[in-house]
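Tip: read the tokens left to right.
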């Protein structure tokens, strides 16, 4: 297991070194380890909230083969990031407007398997290309679940990483594996708990993860920063099915206010 983690970290270190561009764009990966924790829904809603803080945001749907961000934004893309990778269209043609001011989407393609080029950095290249445009304050990358090569590539190229998890034991096992891997190549990880009844539960679990990391002698300079929780709320899934954002439709709800607190802290932390 340790050899596997070290190998993954080496890939992340190499990818991080490749990001040598001058840009105002902060690249933030939203990841989870485990699927089904609400990552894509939270990414879309966070993008909208970032825009309310005066940020111009692009969202890259990087869940390779299982893209659904166009549904959440109610956008019907004629082109996707794969069309750009395959040199069929220009980059500006795949950056699509959404119904929300200052929020753009680079759509993926559900069911698509990209096999035309086996380059290990094909996805990090498109991230750098978008950042090099210098048009956005924030590029949010909605990664796939797990820690496969695609996810590692997006994590490696990102300035900051936000992990979304739940109190479910299997989700925590996966987020700890993510923490171990990142501790060998990154400076910090932001942690958000979804479907968690109150702030203190997430705070206590984060402390337990930190204690476990210290016990296992992980990099002591690596920081795990807990930035908040989102309470369970049926309105979240309802608005998703209606192709709307719960933070806009239910502004005064506890869940919307919870996520706004998370975004507010991230804006302060990442200094974007």
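Filled-in amino acids:
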């Amino acid at each position: 297991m340790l050899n596997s983690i070290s190998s993954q970290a080496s890939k992340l270190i190499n990818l991080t070194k490749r990001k040598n561009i001058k840009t105002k764009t902060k690249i933030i990966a939203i990841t989870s380890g485990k699927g089904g924790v609400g990552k894509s829904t939270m990414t879309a809603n966070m993008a909208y909230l970032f825009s309310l803080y005066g940020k111009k945001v692009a969202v890259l749907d990087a869940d390779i083969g299982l893209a659904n961000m166009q549904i959440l934004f109610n956008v019907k893309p004629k082109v996707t990031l794969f069309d750009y990778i395959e040199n069929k269209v220009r980059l500006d043609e795949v950056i699509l407007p959404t119904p929300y001011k200052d929020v753009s989407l680079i759509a993926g393609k559900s069911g698509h398997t990209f096999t035309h080029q086996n380059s290990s950095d094909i996805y990090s290249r498109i991230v750098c290309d978008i950042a090099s445009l210098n048009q956005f304050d924030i590029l949010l990358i909605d990664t796939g679940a797990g820690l496969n090569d695609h996810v590692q590539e997006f994590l490696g190229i990102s300035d900051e990483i936000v992990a979304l998890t739940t109190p479910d034991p299997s989700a925590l096992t996966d987020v700890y594996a993510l923490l171990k891997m990142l501790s060998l190549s990154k400076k910090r990880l932001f942690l958000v708990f979804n479907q968690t009844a109150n702030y203190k539960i997430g705070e206590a679990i984060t402390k337990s993860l930190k204690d476990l990391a210290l016990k296992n002698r992980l990099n002591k300079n690596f920081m795990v920063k807990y930035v908040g929780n989102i309470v369970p709320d049926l309105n979240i899934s309802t608005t998703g099915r209606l192709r709307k954002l719960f933070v806009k439709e239910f502004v005064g709800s506890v869940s919307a206010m919870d996520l706004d607190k998370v975004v507010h802290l991230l804006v302060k932390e990442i200094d974007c």
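Residues 2-270 form a domain with the Rossmann fold fold (CATH 3.40.50.300). The CA atoms of residues 242 and 271 lie 33 Å apart.
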